[in-house]
């Protein structure tokens, strides 16, 4: 059985055992160095699966990744997405960053965003990396780590 079929079958079984029905679709994005298995799950009740700011989603992605590592005896890049949560969250983070940038430009003072995960901070840093008037930096430790948006000097 190839990796794509195995990922699709096991993810479907995993979610059914948790009591969730829906459709699993696995797409593979090929890269020069590695393949990314994008697992898309559509369900009528996604909120419990996603959790607060995607906490449950990322935990399930980690569990599935560990399972596939033991099954395939190699690490695979896996991205679990439920009802397009990742795209919606990225849009929300971009809006949050845009609002903070407006405030920083208007006041000339740095602005701290709420604490967020490393992947979310990375999205903010990348989104604002080419901005001509502001710079970003991460500050804090662990779950309290956040992005600081400051005017460029």
Written overview of the protein:
This protein is of the alpha+beta class and 153 residues long. It folds into two domains: 3-83, GMP Synthetase, Chain A, domain 3, CATH 3.30.300; 87-151, 2-Layer Sandwich (Ribosomal Protein S8, Chain: A, domain 1), CATH 3.30.1370. The chain has helices spanning 3-17, 47-50, 55-72, 85-107, 118-128, and strands at residues 23-30, 35-42, 77-82, 111-112, 134-139, 146-151. Strands 1-2-3 form a three-stranded mixed sheet. A three-stranded antiparallel sheet has the order 4-6-5, with helices on one face. The longest helix has 23 residues, at 85-107. The chain is elongated, with a radius of gyration of 18 Å. The model has no long low-confidence stretch (mean pLDDT 93).
Q: In order across it, which strands form the biggest sheet?
A: 1-2-3
The CATH homologous superfamily of the largest domain corresponds to K homology (KH) domain
Q: Could you say how many structural domains there are in total?
A: 2
Order of helices and strands: HEEHHEHEHEE
Shape: elongated
Largest β sheet strand count, sense and barrel closure: 3 strands, mixed
CATH class of the largest domain: Alpha Beta
Query: How many E-type strands?
Result: 6
Q: Radius of gyration from the CA trace?
A: 18 Å
CATH topology of the largest domain: GMP Synthetase, Chain A, domain 3
Uncertain spans, ≥5 residues at pLDDT below 50?
Answer: none
């Amino acid at each position: 059985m190839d990796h794509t079929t195995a990922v699709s079958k096991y993810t479907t079984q995993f979610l059914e055992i948790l009591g969730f029905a829906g459709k699993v679709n696995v797409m593979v994005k090929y890269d020069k160095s590695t393949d990314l298995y994008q697992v898309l799950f559509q369900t009528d009740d996604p909120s419990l699966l996603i959790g607060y700011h995607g906490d449950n989603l990322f935990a399930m992605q980690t569990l599935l990744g560990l399972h596939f590592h033991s099954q395939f005896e190699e690490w695979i890049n896996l991205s679990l997405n439920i009802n397009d949560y990742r795209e919606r969250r990225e849009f929300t983070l971009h809006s949050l960053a845009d609002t903070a940038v407006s405030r920083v430009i208007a006041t000339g003072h740095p602005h701290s965003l709420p604490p967020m995960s490393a992947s979310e901070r990375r999205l903010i840093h990348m989104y604002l990396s080419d901005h001509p008037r502001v710079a970003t930096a991460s500050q804090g430790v662990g779950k309290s780590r956040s992005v600081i948006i400051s005017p460029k000097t």
